[in-house]
Amino acid sequence: MKKTFLLLVIAIVGVSTSSNAQEYWNFGVKGGVNFTNMTSDGFEDNKSRTGFHLGVLAEIPVSDRFSVQPEVLYSTQGTEDERSNFTNEYKLDYIQVPLIAKFYLIDGLALEAGPSFNFLVNEEYKFDNGALDLEADSELASTFEFAGAFGASYKFNNGFFVNGRYVQGFTDAFDSDSFDDDAINNNGFQLGVGFQF
Questions:
Q1: In CATH, what class is 2-196?
Q2: Where are the domains of the chain?
Q3: Which of 120, 39, 114, 118 shows the shortest CA–CA distance to 79?
Q4: CA 78, CA 94: separation in Å to the nearest integer?
């Protein structure tokens, strides 16, 4: 995992230093709400879990209509299984490192897409049936996830922006020896606001 993170940092630095057309970097902060779930044959009836994301970014202009935007986000994800007699909640917290390509359609409005390299930092399981309220750490999830993100953003002239993304995990969220052969993938929406300096 450390080697993957190091290679990612080198790639981001390489992209930024090779962008001869860039005029300046726009640093910023962002945050918002997550609506996430986990999908597989065994998770069909689960409900989405509401969480949040918060982090920093740097938009690097490459041309008038194209930018590269690396980000580092803390993102709370997971899923819920709510029945009449009990509730299960499974929480996964990641440090997400998306490397987003931004294509500006008009001034301010951009389509966004790119890979996301996600590193697990916390994993919890909660069970509540009225008589028993159990909350415990878990160690079933994979420590690294490769994902993709696609969405759109709009940046106002004063530096504030809004954005929405769909994020899909491509690799199994769990270690292969923890569950059966059915892959379990993270997915969900991120709706956020932010400010670029």
A1: mainly beta
A2: 2-196
A3: 39
A4: 10
